[in-house]
């Protein structure tokens, strides 16, 4: 009998120790750590819960997939949809399960007026997975036949047609879906302000209106400036003068930050409006509805020149070269 009691107490002690170890482990494992870093966990369609929990362990979101699985079963794990989930290492069980059952994450991509297709693609860097990378975006953007838009009929690229806006992107989506969404926004917004794909405006085709708007948006820094730069473009076209817009040289030479060199001003690209008379063959950046509207309804004036003067918030406009140079001599030109 004495021997039996010894065995019984020993068994109870083992059970108590095991329960204590599990309890302490659970307590430590389930609590979030302030020292985690961001990780992305990709859940494939049809992936089992066990496989997802193993991924969480591999990514160090949880240290023990087995304990987390027990926790999830107690809490009642719901459906975990396919997609990308942004978590942190040592996230803590409650928050991890909440994120997983809350649905996959989406990313916010903001396209600003004036951004080129390359610049938009650069915004996609860092996304998990291979589907929506910057490189895949550029590859897809080069295939115009994959998309539909009435403004594509006379376009040679997507430049100027990817509408500036904020897009919430599924990281597992495709570049084709995102590009078509941007094209649809352009079509809707352009037509809302009165631009028809087959219309003519101040002797310009719809595509040329988009080209002029893309230049005005890159040159001006205010809506009022857009309309005045648009007028300068029309006045110079009517006079047979080269537009001589620095923004077109920057697009032609991909120089968006350094001073423009003399050699770049002589660049042979058809986009360089210092060496070619008339509008470039295509837009030089993303265009919004305000930009289109300002070309459709340019400011009144006889200006042929403008400059950003030091100490002036807005561009200054002049009829003659001599007037412009006198202003530069007095105030200096912004660099």
How big is the Rg? Answer: 30 Å
What integer is the average pLDDT? 88
Low-confidence sequence ranges: none
Number of helices: 13
What is the number of E strands? 8
Please give the oligomerization state of what you see.
single chain
Give, in spatial order, the strands making up the sheet with the most strands: 1-2
Please bin the fraction of helical residues.
Answer: 40-55%
Sheet with the most strands, sense and barrel status:
2 strands, antiparallel
What is the helix/strand order? HEHHEHEHHEHEEHHHHHEEH
Strand content: 5-15%
End-to-end C-alpha gap: 98 Å
Descriptive overview:
There is one protein chain. By secondary structure, the chain is mainly alpha-helical. It has 13 helices and eight strands. The chain has helices at 2-30, 49-58, 65-75, 93-101, 117-122, 134-141, 175-192, 206-219, 223-239, 246-253, 262-265, 289-296, 321-331, and strands at residues 38-43, 83-88, 107-110, 166-169, 200-201, 204-205, 305-307, 316-318. The strands form four sheets. Strands 1-2 form a two-stranded antiparallel ribbon. Helix 8 (206-219) packs across helix 9, helix 8 (206-219) packs across helix 12 (289-296) and helix 9 crosses helix 12. The longest helix is centred in the N-terminal third of the chain and has 29 residues, at 2-30. The chain is elongated, with a radius of gyration of 30 Å. The N and C termini lie far apart (98 Å). The relative contact order is 0.09. The model has no long low-confidence stretch (mean pLDDT 88).
């Amino acid at each position: 009998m004495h021997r039996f009691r010894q065995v019984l107490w020993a068994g109870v002690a083992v059970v108590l120790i095991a329960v204590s170890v599990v309890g302490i482990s659970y307590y430590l494992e389930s609590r979030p750590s302030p020292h985690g870093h961001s990780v992305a966990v990709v859940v494939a369609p049809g992936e089992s819960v066990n496989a997802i929990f193993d991924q969480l362990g591999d990514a160090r979101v949880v240290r023990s997939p087995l304990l987390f699985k027990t926790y999830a079963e107690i809490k009642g794990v719901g459906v975990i949809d396919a997609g990308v989930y942004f978590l942190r290492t040592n996230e803590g069980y409650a928050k991890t399960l909440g994120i997983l059952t809350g649905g996959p994450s989406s990313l916010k991509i903001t396209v600003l007026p004036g951004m080129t297709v390359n610049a938009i693609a650069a915004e996609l860097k860092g996304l998990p997975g291979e589907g929506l990378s910057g490189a895949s975006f550029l590859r897809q953007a080069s295939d115009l036949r994959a998309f539909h838009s009435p403004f594509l009929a006379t376009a040679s690229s997507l430049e100027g047609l990817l509408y500036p806006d904020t897009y919430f992107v599924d990281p597992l989506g495709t570049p084709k879906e995102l590009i078509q969404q941007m094209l649809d926004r352009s079509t809707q917004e352009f037509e809302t302000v009165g631009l028809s794909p087959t219309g003519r405006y101040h002797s310009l085709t719809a595509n040329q209106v988009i080209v002029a708007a893309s230049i005005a948006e890159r040159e001006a820094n205010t809506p009022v400036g857009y309309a005045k730069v648009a007028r300068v473009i029309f006045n110079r076209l009517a006079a047979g003068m080269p537009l001589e817009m620095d923004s077109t040289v920057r697009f032609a030479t991909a120089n968006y930050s350094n001073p423009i060199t003399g050699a770049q001003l002589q660049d042979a690209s058809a986009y360089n409006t210092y060496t070619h008379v008339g509008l470039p063959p295509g837009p030089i950046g993303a265009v919004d509805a305000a930009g289109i509207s300002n070309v459709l309804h340019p400011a009144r004036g006889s200006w042929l020149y403008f400059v950003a003067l030091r100490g002036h918030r807005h561009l200054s406009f002049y009829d003659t070269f001599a007037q412009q140079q006198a202003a530069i001599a007095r105030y200096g030109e912004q660099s």
